[in-house]
Amino acid sequence: MIATLEQEESLQHANSRAVVASLESVSMNYGEVRALRNVNFTVRSGQVVALLGPNGAGKTTAVKLLLGLLQPNSGKARVFAGDPTHPQNRMRTGAMLQVGRVPETLRVREHIDLFSSYYPQPMPLEEVLAAAGLEKLRDRKFGDLSGGQRQRTLFALAICGNPDLLFLDEPTVGLDVEARRALWEEIRRLVNHGKTVLLTTHYLEEADALADRIAVINQGEIIAEGTPAEIKAQTSGKRIRCITELSLASLLQIPGVTDVKQDREAVEIHAREAEPVVRALLARDQSLSGLEITSAGLEEAFLALTQDNNQNANRQD
Amino acid sequence: MSTAAAVLSNTQIERSPSHSLTIYLKEAKYEFLKNLRLRVYTVSVISFPLMFYVLFGLVLNAKESIGSTHVPTYLLATYGTFGVMGASLFGTASGLASDRGLGWLQVKRASPMPPFAYFVAKVLVSMGFSAIVVLLLLVLGISFGGVRMPLAETAKLIATLVAGSIPFAAMGLALGYFTGPNSAPAAINLIYLPMSFCSGLWVPYMFLPKFVRQIALALPPFHLSQLALGTVGAGFQQSTATHWEVLLAFTLICLGIARIGFQRDKGKLYG
Question: How far apart (Å, rounded) are the C-alpha atoms in residues A51 and B178?
């Protein structure tokens, strides 16, 4: 009871928070290629929002629009209720982008020193180094860093200005498990200090672990939006795996079964609810073995969402 | 919602002039360090003009004269121009082409860096490396070539050559906007080396074939070398003002082209 009250309060609180970044009916083309189609999207203060989607879905384009690096063909990108390119809005924004080459002959601390100088109230160097786990690498030249260390340096450049709003485009690509967890911790700490974070990722686990809200994007359209729990609920269901003599066709006729697939010697059955289906299975096949039931995780939800979306798109074509 | 928006827009932060100056200085400082540590840059930009000067000015022709000018002194002006050109073109074009093509410029543009600071730093650092090349040439000439010049004349030569870095830095910016990360160095060499030859930077102008001499008149390095030669009393033809005017016009044209590139990049995926 108390928990529900708290949840309701936090929900109300979330909706009353100011919008710090938004895409309003944004469409964006690169020549013939449509990168975003009528996208509406908001990031509220103090939240971590994840843009989740496969490669080429339009995640990076969305981030670049919000950073003012691209101009939409139609619609509006707004940051702090204003123009993303305005210097005063940029002073409150930090960004970690995917970059091909960073000047390699400058040292980690020199890169940070330069980027810190752009901001009115930067974090002290030591704090930045600690936050990005770079204390021991401060004097290392960028060219001598490993892939993960480079990512951490780019993260340091994004946060060094102590910005209110942070854009992280695929921040944990190339990081090992430990470094990824450390970065997650750091992102949580920043949000606890009142920062707002928009991150893009194709790691479902990452969106699930970090985000208050997830927007699933596919082929330039936002196909689902909500809390991680809500996204999962959109394709709530169970996956039943077993070895059975029943044919695929007869399995499909069991009430509640949505999909059946042969997987090597076993079959994989998707169902809205597991129990009635399992009861029916056991009744019809005495020799059934290897029964496993798992709930559809975010991964399934994501795959289901993007597959539906792709099928619809194909049908329209 | 309306109050929230008001709160958001009220927290305006103004950047003081001294803060802006700090940014420009840091940008230039790190641009300088970046290039200084880049062996490809320092080797090609500093050692080539010095090597040529040692070979053709100190080892081979040290006792000769061109007109009434001692060869080591004459070549100081022409190899000085050659060095300035290299330092400026490589200092701007290759860095810009790579920063543009490989995404680093976007990271900087997404930050609150004043966009102008990036370009000013490149031009200042080109001038800095030009000064280093010219000073090293002077040290060699004075130490081993018997170059003797009054202090005022020396200062004028240095000032002329360092100022002459600006047109080529502008040219480098234009090139950097129309070449890719891999093609930039080749494109620079393709322009830099023939232009140097045709402008009389390697072989003195009067020894060039007639048709090359006619081409030279249209080339900016020729005009800078004439200004530099003028400071050591070896210039000829047109007045000093004409040479400066040509260089100024060339600078403006290059900046115009660079601006077209800058505008073209805006709104593109990479740039």
Answer: 34
B5 and A68 in contact by Cβ < 8 A? no
Cross-chain residue pair B4–A106, CB shorter than 8 Å: no
Cα A195 from Cα B143, distance rounded (Å) = 62
Q: Which residues of A touch B8 (CB under 8 A)?
A: 18, 20, 80-81
DSSP for B61-76, written as a single string? STT-EETTEEHHHHHH
Task: Give the Å distances, CA to CA, from B84 to A37, B48, B50, B79.
Answer: 50, 11, 12, 8
DSSP state of A94: E
Residue environment code for A117-142, b if the CB has 16+ CB neighbours within 10 A, otherwise e: bbbeebbeeeebbebbbbeebeebbb
Q: Does A114 touch chain B (CB under 8 A)?
A: yes
Do the Cβ atoms of B113 and A80 come within 8 Å? no
Residue A8 reports pLDDT greater than 50: yes
Domain limits, chain B: 18-265
Which of residues B134 and A239 earns the better pLDDT score? B134
| Chain A residues inside the 8 Å CB shell of B269 | 30, 64, 70
In CATH, the number for domain A237-295 is 3.30.70
pLDDT tens track for B200-253: 898 888 888 999 888 988 999 999 999 999 888 877 766 788 899 999 999 999
Give the tens place of pLDDT for each residue, B64-97. Answer: 888 788 888 999 999 999 999 999 999 999 999 9
CB atoms B5 and A81 under 8 Å? yes
Q: What is the ipTM of this complex?
A: 0.87
CA distance A58 to A63: 9
Architecture label for domain A18-227: 3-Layer(aba) Sandwich (3.40)
Q: Tell me: pLDDT of A12 over 70.
A: no
Residue A172 carries which DSSP code?
T
For helices A147-159 and A177-192, the axis angle rounded to 10 degrees is 10
**Every domain range in chain A assigned CATH 3.30.70:** 237-295
CATH 3.40.50.300 domain position(s) in chain A: 18-227
- HSE at residue A217, side-chain half, CA atoms within 13 A, is 32
Most distant pair of Cα atoms in chain B: their distance: 83
